[in-house]
Amino acid sequence: MKKGIVKALILGIALGILLTLTTGFFIKKKTYFVLEEDCVIAGIGTLKKGAILKYVESTNEGITRYSLYLNTKGLRLTPYEENKKNLVIPYFLFSSEENN
What we know:
Layout: H1 2-26, E1 32-34, E2 39-41, E3 45-47, E4 52-58, E5 64-67, E6 93-95
Antiparallel strand pairs: 1-4, 2-3, 2-6, 4-5
């Protein structure tokens, strides 16, 4: 009786691990997304159609966070909140049609 329970337990754990590994292998999350329309960044400016954004996370409130990496050369930039590490300042992105 005990041998049967132990075998079933080991088989269940092995199948769980196998299922987890194969599901992660076959179902790939989309990481990058292309804007399909011009968008407005509230209070900042416009992000043009075709910009590629990297998915970061989704919240329980229904907000999805993306990152946009920018390379610069020769721009004058002013440091902001240098004493805070990993500071995230979220900007909201809206369809440019919503603002017309």
